Amino acid sequence: MNTKNKELPKWYDGGKYTEGDIVTNPFSGETYELTANELAMYDLIMGSQVTGHYDLTAKGLDWFRTANPEAYKILLD
């Protein structure tokens, strides 16, 4: 697990959490424990995909790739 809680970017306007959680990749079944900020960004990415805001999805994915490459590979790649 990545224990460093990387700061969310200035453009981020979603919900913020005080605690992280374990997230499961729905396709592979693999899990990863995310920090509070990673979890907030993960939720933004998932929500923006559902609502068709793909520009926001791309920005979120770019942030996640640098914030936690290991979690990105397991959950989002």
Uncertain runs are none
Molecular shape: globular
Helical coverage, percent range: 40-55%
Average pLDDT metric: 94
Biggest pleated-sheet summary: 2 strands, antiparallel
Question: How far is it from the N-terminal to the C-terminal residue, by CA?
Answer: 17 Å
Largest beta sheet: strand ordering: 1-2
Number of strands: 2
Write down the Rg.
11 Å
Structure description:
With 77 residues, this protein is mainly alpha-helical. The protein has one domain. Helices cover 48% and strands 10% of the residues. The protein contains three helices and two strands. Strands 1-2 form a two-stranded antiparallel ribbon. A hairpin with a 6-residue loop joins strand 1 (21-24) and strand 2. Helix 1 (36-51) runs antiparallel to helix 2 (54-67) and helix 2 crosses helix 3 (69-75). The radius of gyration is 11 Å and the shape is globular.
